[in-house]
Amino acid sequence: MSPTALMLRWLPIVLVLAFPGWAFPAWAQDRVVNIYNWTDYIDPSVLAEFTAKTGIKTRYDVFDSLETLEAKLFAGHSGYDIVLPSNEPSFSRLIRAGALATIDRDKVPNWKNLDPALMRRVESSDPGNRHGAIYLWGSIGLGINPDRIRALAPDAPVDSWSLLLDPAWAKRLAPCGIIMMDSAIDVIPSVLHYLGRSPDGSSPDDLAAVLKLLMAIRPYIREFASGGALEALATGQACLVLDYSGDVDQAAARAKQAGNGVDVEYVAPKEGSEIGFDMLAIPADAPHPDAALAFINFVLQPDIMARITDATRYPNAIPATRALVRPALLVDPNVFPTEAVQKRFFTIGPSAPKADRARTRLWARFKAGS
Predict the structure, then answer these.
(1) What is the pLDDT of residue 1?
(2) Do domains 31-138+276-336 and 139-274+348-368 have the same CATH topology?
(3) Contacts for 2-10: CB closer than 8 Å, 24+ residues apart
(4) What pLDDT, on the 0 to 100 scale, is given for residue 167?
(5) What percent of the chain has pLDDT over 90?
(6) What's the confidence (pLDDT) of residue 276?
(7) Are the C-beta atoms of residues 266 and 249 closer than 8 Å to each other?
(8) How far, in Å, CA of 225 to CA of 180, rounded?
(9) Residue 353: its pLDDT value, please?
(10) Phi (first) and psi of residue 335, to 5 degrees
């Protein structure tokens, strides 16, 4: 090796030894946590406070469907340190694929604040709760503008999935705007349950029944959306939306604040609603796993999680927050459902790849209307 080549080979080490304060390479001292979360799903001041107290910067991106999240994670090298999949089917699917890291609880002392009973409910997705902590939870149901619905159909069954899934009612309500959540993962189990079938059903007969029902209401759906449905509901551009409970409650709060005369309500249909838990998890290839653990520990503080519930209008899994959450939310049954409503909730289980592919094909046909 020539003297010049030898000098170039050892130059980086010499520079680090001579100037230990240099960031060489730059990423070695980069204190940052890259977060991938649902749209409108945190109090932004929490991110600023985390940085102020830990010195760790946050880079924050959002998604509006589980399909989008899964595509990022299964592709690998997403660059994210914190992701928030729903316990089923995404969280369990990512665990089985080896896409999520186990949590070192010694570095998350605030884990003790979590409700053991709620954490047991997600053990079917994550045995031993090794890969994630509950962040927030909620149900899937209907967001409605009752005044506009009654103007078109005074006798409409506003407490039932029939309002959307019965083509006779969908046709009557189409003029005031119907939006369907753009997620096969979230919609198909609710349709199966409405049909009296297992929400985990994936037989050809199950999926044929789902497709028949969905195609019957397809002409009356104005658009498919997830995050965008919140704004459409709040501004009166839509009167009927299939969406998450907290999103609808956020829309109601925005409409009230705007004073635009739009009344928004969330309906957990009498036939039953799917309940899901969104999990704080760390990708197996996270570039900053220690920063991720620090973030999880920070978020699991009661005062921090109470602020997140206040901002998002979704319940959390930390009992101590009940004394800290805004009193108006504590008595809001859409945020903290009554026992009677909770008895109607159902959960879904893990799904097989073959079933996932069949549902994806079904969803594509439904959206295309063919």
Answers:
(1) 47
(2) yes
(3) none
(4) 98
(5) 86
(6) 94
(7) yes
(8) 6
(9) 87
(10) -90, -50
Strand pairing class (57-63; 133-144): unpaired
What does the block give as tokens for 252? 């109601």
Helix (H) or strand (E) holding 330: helix 327-330
CATH architecture of the domain covering 139-274+348-368: 3-Layer(aba) Sandwich (3.40)
Distance of CA 276 to the CA centre of its chain: 8
Q: How many CB atoms lie within 10 A of CB 186?
A: 22
Instruction: Count CA within 13 A, CB hemisphere, residue 362.
Output: 27
* % of the chain beyond a pLDDT of 70: 92
Are 331 and 177 in contact, with CB atoms under 8 Å apart?
Answer: no
- Range 31-138+276-336 classified under CATH 3.40.190.10: yes
Model confidence at 3: pLDDT above 50:
no
Instruction: Give 222-260 pLDDT, tens digit per residue.
Output: 999 876 788 999 999 999 999 999 999 999 999 999 999
Do the Cβ atoms of 43 and 307 come closer than 8 Å?
A: yes
